[in-house]
Amino acid sequence: MVQKSQKKQNTSYADAGVSIDAGDELVKRIKPFVKATARIGSNAEIGGFGGVFDLAKCKFKDPVLVSGTDGVGTKLKIAQEIKKHDTIGIDLVAMSVNDIIVQGAEPLFFLDYFACGKLDVKIATAVVKGIAEGCKQAACALIGGETAEMPGMYQGEEYDLAGFAVGAVERKKILPQKNIKAGDVLIAIPSSGLHSNGFSLARKVLADNKIKFTDKVAGFKKPIGEELLIPTKIYVKQILNLLKKVDVKAMAHITGGGITENLPRVLPEKCGAEINLRSWKLPAIFKLLQEKGNILESEMLRAFNCGVGMILVVDAKNSQKAIQLLKTSGEKAFEIGKISKGKGVRYN
Questions:
Q1: Angle at the Cα of 286 (from 310 to 98), degrees rounded to 5?
Q2: Nearest to 44 by CA among 139, 186, 171, 117
Q3: Taking 60 as the threshold, does the pLDDT of residue 132 lie above it?
Q4: What are the structural domains, with CATH classification, of the chain?
Q5: Tell me, what's the pLDDT at 8?
Q6: Closest of 146, 154, 54, 162 to residue 108, by C-alpha
């Protein structure tokens, strides 16, 4: 007896968990946000195979390109748990543009990578809107990106982010300079909070103390999860303004590793730093984590920024001018220490 062949149903990409229609809808929704980031050298249009930037229009004489890439770590877990996705994109931009500004580079353009298991257009739109806002704060164009829908790689509404920034600086103005010496002054610019580092430790401390992200903790106006999600400060405009008027020898972006690990990265081999711990007050969010987690001061200074987002190195004769200019830009800058002979960071 001959069996009749059964007709198979057609299989689509959507059946495999990938929605081309959702991707198209996302592009449609984010186009206005992306367009708003346009600057000289770009038109910030999306949809092509590659993002285009015309460096010649920026009128550099002898430019060197500086690039940076980063993510936001497990800060994403908090955003996803309390369903607040509108500012995490600012963090993404901040981590890369702050890295390239410390080499004296002006951020020019940015690209993002958004990965998820199932594309939620509403969530992705909120994230990209935040990325566009970060780009506007940094005066760089969002010229492209990638949305990767990968069923089975992420669960539920989980997603991950990565960002890529490119800037330019005149060859003769690349930082750090080679003339850093003992006696140079260290100027600190405050952070807005944890920024985007130390969140695995912060999450552990809260979990160990049975503190939920939705809980209100004494001394804080907002639930602790929202306090932790305060966006990373973007220092681009105030730093670029300062560089036009003051000879800054070096800058350190205080990220993972804290002051202890990041400041030595921009110092010559025979130079160290002396930091006056009495020159600023530890912000409340860091005090909470230190007390609840019984974290040693040395570990705090190596895991968190502890309220300092950026440190600048200037000649002593230029320190007060630099501080005043930063204050004019709205930053509560202050002298945090000095360059010394030796290696590493010493606290007093």
A1: 20
A2: 139
A3: yes
A4: 16-173 (3.30.1330.10), 185-347 (3.90.650.10)
A5: 79
A6: 54
pLDDT score for 47: 73
299 with 206: CB under 8 angstroms? no
Of the candidates 303, 317, 298, which has an alpha carbon nearest to the alpha carbon of residue 257? 303
DSSP 8-state assignment for residue 47: -
- Give the tens place of pLDDT for each residue, 166-194: 999 999 999 999 999 999 999 999 999 99
239 vs 104: CA distance, rounded Å: 9
Helix (H, G, I), strand (E, B) or coil at 48: coil
State the distance between the two ends of the chain, measured CA to CA, in whole angstroms: 93
Q: What share of the chain is helix, strand, coil (3-state, %, to 5)?
A: 35, 20, 40
Contacts of 4 (CB under 8 A, 6+ apart): none
| Cα separation, 95 vs 145, whole angstroms | 17
pTM of full prediction above 0.90: yes
